[in-house]
Amino acid sequence: MNFIFFLSLTLLIILIPYLISGLSYTVFYPTPISEIKKAIKLINIKKPDKAIDLGSGDGRFLFEISKYCREVEGVEIQPILVLYTKLKVILGKYKNIEVKFKDLWSVNLSEYNLIFIFAIKSRMDKLERKILKEVKKGTKVITYAFKLPNLKYKKYTKNGLYLYEV
User: Fold this and answer.
1) Boundaries of domain holding 134
2) Which residues, at least 6 apart from 152, have a Cβ–Cβ distance to it below 8 Å?
3) From CA 156, how far away is CA 166, in angstroms rounded?
4) DSSP state letter for 18
5) How many beta carbons lie within 10 A of that of residue 129, not counting itself?
6) Which helix (H) or strand (E) holds 2?
7) Quick one: which of 48, 63, 18, 64 has its CA closest to 138?
8) What is the C-alpha separation between 5 and 9, in angstroms, rounded?
9) Other Cβ atoms within 10 Å of 154 Cβ, number
10) Among 52, 47, 42, 36, which residue's Cα sits nearest to residue 134?
């Protein structure tokens, strides 16, 4: 009886993030570090910049970009990934990174001047509308793997990084 309870509880803990992600149309597929470094080279980052990663996953973009930005924030819907990233922030003593368990649709983008997105293709249209509605002129947006449907990108790489300036 205890074994069955323990097994059920373990499966539930493991499956909850995937159930949540299924409800929010997200899947965790980490951006390769090599692509993150290419993304950083695409843009002219200034120390006062405030960046956000919409769907920050395990935080790899946050940790790389934090070397160049004043303030970095990640929002993630999968609680296990939020806890993992928060633990890395604490252990690594990163002072300029904040991670929130939050749906990207509830974030007000107006305070950020650098936005990173690795989302599924079917969400790019809605994300583009959100970006155009909320960001200030001059905000840089980097997408990986999928383009925003209507905005014209300024730069791109053959591996699927697109830089936009709104």
Assistant:
1) 26-165
2) 164
3) 15
4) H
5) 13
6) helix 2-23
7) 48
8) 6
9) 13
10) 52
Q: Are 99 and 82 in contact (CB under 8 A)?
A: yes
Tens digit of each residue's pLDDT (9 = 90 or more) over 2-35: 777 666 666 556 665 555 554 544 566 678 888 8
DSSP 99: E
Domain holding 38: CATH number? 3.40.50.150
**In this structure, what DSSP letter does residue 144 have?**
E
Task: Quickly list H helices, 24-165.
Answer: 33-42, 60-65, 79-92, 124-134
Structurally, the chain folds into a number of domains equal to 1
Q: Is residue 117 part of a domain?
A: yes
C-alpha 63: how far from its chain's center? 12
CA dihedral of 150, 140, 32, 57, whole degrees rounded to 10: -90
Residue 148's identity, in one-letter code, is L
- Percentage of residues in the chain having pLDDT higher than 90: 60
Contact 128, 150 (CB under 8 A): yes
How is residue 77 written in tokens?
């819907």
Is 91 a domain residue? Answer: yes
Instruction: With 0.85 as the threshold, say if the pTM is over it.
Output: no
Q: Tens of pLDDT along 117-136?
A: 987 888 899 999 999 999 99
- For residue 149, how far is the Cα from the chain centroid? 19
